[in-house]
Amino acid sequence: MCGDCTYEQYLRGTLRIPNYHINFQVHGAQIVTYDTDSTAIQDLALGDCVRLCAAFSAIPTLQAAIKAGKPLKLLGKPLYYEPLGAAVDKESSLNPNSFVAKVSSIITQMHQDGTLTRLSKKWYGTDLTTSATTG
Predict the structure, then answer these.
(1) Nearest-angstrom CA–CA distance, 37 and 65
(2) What are phi and psi of 32, to 5 degrees?
(3) Range of the domain at 122
């Protein structure tokens, strides 16, 4: 799993998402961090606990690896859902407020008219735009 990301925070029991209760179900795991979860999946695919016995990642990432022929298996339901958003460069010399407002407006409109749901189903095979998605 990626280091210093929500996956690691979840496994350490320190993940906090505003207005969202997290039921920590994994305790005492031996944590190995990677630059990305995709790199961890590569090591997991070596099999037989050669480097890893399990990896923590998003369902679409794991499903893509399986579809690409990696000998992996998804276990159980997602442990938590995290809201995602568009990123903006906070170090930019330009004031990002109008840009953020415009992007937020576009995303809201895409939610309302169903565009995000259609794109999610097209590219991921399921609607990832709601927390009710179980993969």
Answers:
(1) 11
(2) -120, 125
(3) 85-135
Q: Establish if 74 belongs to a structural domain.
A: no
Identity at 11, one-letter amino acid code: L
Residues 96 and 135 in one domain: yes
Tokens for 112? Answer: 């309302």
pTM over 0.70: yes
pLDDT in tens, 63-91: 899 999 999 999 988 888 888 778 888 78
Number of domains in the chain: 2
SS (H, E, C) 26-78: CCCCCCCCECCHHHHHHHHCCCCCCCCCCCCCCHHHHHHHHHCCCCCCCCCCC
User: Cα–Cα distance between 16 and 115 in angstroms, integer?
Assistant: 29
With bands split at pLDDT 50, 70 and 90, how would you rate the model's confidence at 135?
very low
